[in-house]
Write a structure and sequence with these properties.
Largest sheet: 7 strands, parallel
Number of strands: 14
Strand content: 15-25%
Organism: marine metagenome
Strand order of the largest sheet: 3-2-1-4-5-6-7
Order of helices and strands: EHEHEHHEEHEHEEHEEEHEHEHEHH
Pfam family, one: Glyco_tran_28_C
Radius of gyration: 20 Å
Distance between the termini: 4 Å
CATH topology of the largest domain: Rossmann fold
Protein name: Glycosyl transferase family 28 C-terminal domain-containing protein
CATH class of the largest domain: Alpha Beta
GO molecular function: hexosyltransferase activity
Helix content: 25-40%
Shape: globular
Number of helices: 12
């Protein structure tokens, strides 16, 4: 690909995960080409903070509602499907305008299904070739593959941020079913916005609180209530974008309302153990840093619950149920056991990515 291509890089705005994993790709591309980044909500704010000199476009926010009852999460998403489809159509219309306005020559979409054009080569990034569904909706797993096959027609290549089996991180999300043999698939290796640093591991436990409201607030209260009973030096990041990034110290604990990527990179490198949600982007960061972790899946989020079971079975990470969480007990057991060696995988192979989209 010649220099100075005009590239539209769109990132799904559901949380921060898609934005953080796109950072190494955006950074590499921005050194050689003109990039226009597009996203919504906190994801867009994060990307604007990381790349203040790049043109940024705000996409429509999906504004997805997550109920408190975990058994209602999947049905609730089903009821919101018409709203999601409307947003996809809005994404598509806006994309056509951007292609015309900026004379776009490449489109890269991280899970934005409405971002494509028949006028330029398009590339799609996803770790979910099939959607994990639970209960009565489990019968829709195969139809979700059909949906992806239909949507993949619009893209030249489907880029999966994972390694090929056996040392893969996505499990059945990206390596099972007939869609795993799709001819457009390309397994790039994992992506991580954090990098290993030569720092002392002087933090015993780092707690990273995240997830959609109201589950994030519930997770925060659960952690803070049990924190006094967990020995050692602890740091808590509450995941409240826009809040103060200065730490509040209380005895053996430092609490941050928010940590930017630079601070989070430092804290993760200094931590001996990290307690967090098993979001896929977080998993990739932990493997890149070779860090031990205790995962607490968000109740009702089928993907996190599946990944939790998968890592428990493979022995990569420890997992606990939020509804029956006993932090002092489970962390005590983790400290008694030897650390598991994480797989040695390719991280941030941006040169291969550049060749792929050329």
């Amino acid at each position: 690909m010649s220099r100075d291509k005009r590239i539209l890089f769109a990132v799904l705005g559901w949380g921060l995960g898609h934005a953080t994993r796109s950072i190494p790709l955006i950074r590499e591309l921005s050194e050689k080409h003109r990039l226009i980044i597009a996203s919504s909500g906190v994801a867009l704010r994060l990307l604007q903070d990381e790349f203040p000199d790049l043109d940024a476009v705000e996409f429509p926010d999906y504004d997805i509602y997550y109920p408190n009852n975990k058994h209602l999460v999947i049905p609730s998403l089903g009821l919101q499907l018409p709203k999601i489809l409307v947003q996809l159509f809005r994404e598509f219309r806006l994309t056509q305008k951007l292609v015309s306005k900026y004379h776009i020559q490449r489109i890269i979409s991280d899970c934005c299904y409405g971002v494509f054009s028949t006028q330029v080569p398009c590339f799609f990034i996803t770790h979910q070739l099939r959607f994990m569904l639970t209960g009565l909706l489990r019968c829709l797993v195969i139809p979700s593959e059909w949906f992806n096959r239909y949507m993949f027609r619009h893209y030249k290549r489907i880029i999966v941020p994972d390694t090929i089996q056996p040392n893969n991180l996505a499990g059945s999300l990206a390596h099972s079913g007939s869609i795993a043999t799709h001819p457009k698939l390309f397994y790039l290796g994992i992506l991580s916005s954090v990098q290993k640093q030569a720092l002392n591991e002087d933090i015993d436990i780092l707690f990273s609180v995240s997830g959609p409201e109201k589950q994030r607030t519930r997770f925060e209260k659960l952690i803070l209530n049990q924190l006094p009973h967990v020995p050692g030096k602890k740091v808590v990041v509450l995941g409240k974008p826009g809040g103060s990034a200065s730490g509040e110290k209380q005895k053996d604990t430092i609490k941050f309302n928010y940590a930017d990527r630079q601070l989070m990179n430092e804290l993760m490198n200094r931590a001996k153990l990290i307690v967090c949600r098993p979001g896929y982007s977080t998993v990739m960061e932990l493997v890149a840093l070779n860090k031990s972790a205790l995962f607490i899946p968000t109740p009702g989020q089928a993907e996190q619950e599946y990944l939790g079971r998968y890592y428990q079975q493979t022995g990569l990470f420890q997992v606990a149920n939020q509804n029956h969480l006993d932090l002092p007990n489970v962390i005590g057991k983790i400290r008694q056991n030897a650390c598991t060696t994480l797989p040695d995988v390719v991280v941030n192979d941006t040169s291969k990515f550049l060749r792929l989209i050329a």
